[in-house]
Model the fold of this input.
Amino acid sequence: MKFSTRQHTVVIITLAALTLAVFGQVHDFELIHLDDNLYLTDNPWIWDGLTGENIHRVFTSAKPAALWQPLVWLSYMVDVELFGKNAGGFHLTNVAWHVANVLLLYFVLLGFTNEPLKAAVVAALFAIHPLHVESVAWVTERKDVMSTFFGLLSIECYRRWVQQAGKIWFALAWLGMLLSLMSKQMLVTLPFVLLLLDYWPLRRFEQPADDTNAETNVRSLIIEKLPFFAMTLVFCIIAFSAQSGGGAVNDAQRLPITYRLLNAVLVYGIYIWKTLWPVGLGIFYPHPTTNISIAATAVSGCVLIAITLVAWRWRTRRPELLVGWLWYLGTAVPVIGIVQVGAQQMADRFTYVPSIGLFIAFAWMLPMSLADNKARVRTSEAISLAIVGLFSILSFRQTSHWQDSHTIFNHTIEVTGDNAMMHVCLSVPLQNEKRHEEAIVHLQEAVRITPTHRIGHLNLGVSMAALGNMAGAEAAYKEALRVSPGFAEAYNNLGNLYLSQMRWQAAVDQYEQALLLKPILLDAEMNLSFVRQHLQQLTQRLEAARKTAQQRPKDAKARHSLAIALRDYGDFPAAVESLRKAHELAPDDRQITNDLLQGYIQLGSIAAQANRFEDALRSFTLAIDLAPKAVQPRLNVARVLRLIGRQIDAIVHYRIILSTQPNDFNIRYELAELLIEMNRAPEAKRELELILKTNPTFEPANAALNRLGLSNR
Done:
């Protein structure tokens, strides 16, 4: 069937409109906290736009993403020039590249086959298939859409070289492949794709008119592509070097080749199934490592073998089936996991190019599978339209999940189940929004699923520290180092923790270890410089204070100055001891008394955070002896007693506080909660009603009464 110019125009407009209808919603989407932060948000030189220094940088460095993709970096810089920091502009650029790919794919297939209807079906499926949402809606995957665009241009130039014999077209085909690989090293298999196209639809494998034997003919077809094969070799080396340097292929070295091959067989089958039934899609699928289902792998292997045998058997009568099938198998090789890059088992984005082969096989084989009658074309059109319609709805819905980090990560957790990576990723925006309690829930789930997840332990420490749980934070950082002894960032965070506690030398030790492991860790370098400088000043000040105190042992002010110097140096026990001696010398000095009180409270808090509860109680009790009417030390005693199960003693202290602070509804609520824990509901009710009498809007009290079935409303 041939189309008129008007029909071609209708197809082009329809394809573009369909693509925009599905993906246009991304115009107000945000960047997400997975790779977008690495590529864009936290990548300062991108935001400088197109400068001479940046242009030089993108061609000479694979950082920060361990990928050499200079054209992608340049495209981001162009976006900055056009849209500033408006994330919607970056998203729409991805959509524009995808629309260009859809239209270019249509024209490429039309030029090769002169079958506009089938070419339109392939382009439509490519445009709106749910598996392709990731490549379009994720700004990080700009490399997918750009690489494919230049790859399709290369294929089109190759066709023109074959059909028109102009050397310029061969050079442009080579240039197109170069530009494709400068965007992403996905189409290193392009020379093999060109050989497939030689077989069909170009039919260059057939016996030449000059009686050259078929073997010689095939050899000549391979030889003419040597410039392409040479480029493949060069870019394979570039890709492996960049990713090895960034640590991206470490998983490949740890996972035995047997399991990688088994996973490759399984994933080939999964991709086919997801192409047919594209539901339950997410941004990250955890790798099963050695827990691969042998039964599922066997089924997948049988399917692959069966399709291969059928395609080979029909290679002469239906060559498009063999070409489409081998296109799928071959173009997926770089991302099928034989060389494992990253921690994922598979990814939707990896099907962006390989699925074209499956769509070709479908579009050309569908009419042949129907009854041979006049209604064949109409029936195949109806089936194709129904599939395109269904996939458009599914893609629109899948795209909506990419609105921000929360939506896509929560959706992925929902569809993939135990997914430590997604729980960790979700913790990042929660931490940025100061929602640390929620972040901790996800991080604890992450380390439950994968106890060796070092980032999970690290982020758990960050949130615990933010909430003041320094003992928990320290334990989390140390667990991160236990599972990953070379984790420089964990040493740096542990140094920050010690710095916040004024444990200066301990902080120095951690920063030095971090820099030993990762000399370019700027945070650790800056922190170490600050601590060393500050520690030097503190040491000089402490030595001077000690000297003065030794010279004037009966001078309370000298003892007080020494205590302050010791406190600032981080030696709290010695500081408190010096304050105690100063207080003995000047018991009526309010400043010394107050500092000693705070010193006892600080010592008790440090002990409590370290789970040294008896030491904590001892320090808090000394504070109470010093200032019997002070609320904070007695409240701390009550809380520690409650924590270690001495509820009766805790109640005594709560009631002593409330005897002098009867209107403190927060403390009274703590007492009510304790009484509820002890099943003393009537007493708890009285305390809650006293709270609501003075503060009727205190919702926790109403909620507690509701739990008791004694609502005050």
Notes: DSSP finds 35 helices and two strands in the chain. Residues 356 and 417 are 30 Å apart (CA to CA). The two ends are 76 Å apart (CA to CA).
